[in-house]
Amino acid sequence: MIAVTPEELLRIESPPMADFLESYLSMKQHVFIRFGKWREIIAQELPDDRELYSNLVATIHYAKGVAHAALGEVGEAERERELFLAAKARVPETRLLHNNRCIDLLDIADAMQLGEIEYRKGNYDEAFAHLRRSVEIDDNLPYDEPWGWMQPTRHALGALLFEQGRAEEAEAVYREDLGLGGSLSRATIHPDNVWSLRGLHQCLERRGATDTGEGMLIRQRLDLAAARADTPVRASCFCAQAAMQAAAE
What we know:
Blueprint: H1 7-10, H2 17-21, H3 27-34, H4 38-42, H5 54-70, H6 74-89, E1 96-97, E2 100-101, H7 102-120, H8 124-139, H9 153-163, H10 167-178, H11 194-206, H12 213-227, H13 241-248
Antiparallel strand pairs: 1-2
Helix pairs in contact: 3-5, 5-6, 5-7, 6-7, 7-8, 8-9, 9-10, 9-11, 10-11, 11-12
């Protein structure tokens, strides 16, 4: 997407192509976060034209804040948060990603980033409140295909709840994401995704329920999903990956 979206295209003013296309360039940041590429995120340079690439600049600062938080670098994460908020304020209301305004998508980033920072500061209840807020905003975005927010917000919430021993709450989060909770519309669930299947299976393991009929079915679905993945998925979010691996060892 980056290669086929040249700057000359974004500079066309009639129609304002940046409003329609610049948002695509931020997808790289979501992929980096999805797979825990923390140092690669931090090493990125910002584009020279901060106005033309306003959504990208804000999203990079969001990603850098999450990356620093995941690495336990809270001071750096908080500095990136200040830069993110300033950049977010410069994104025009006309900037779109399909049916969604970028400023609305950045509200999710705001809650996600703050949740990750508070989590690394040990303020777990506050962190989970922010992450639940990100879930609420995500659930209420206008319908879009693909989704307006790339990484389902429940994946971070579930992983960090589980990491803190709150497996019952995490299980409920994963059930909702997979569409097993029954309270969400079809447009807001992600059936059979490997991330929540992994998380749900871990929760079932924690309460000794993997040998039940449901437990065996979830294991089968997880095995099928994992077989299609080219990266091992040990947790529903790489923000909890290191701790999960250490616990497994």
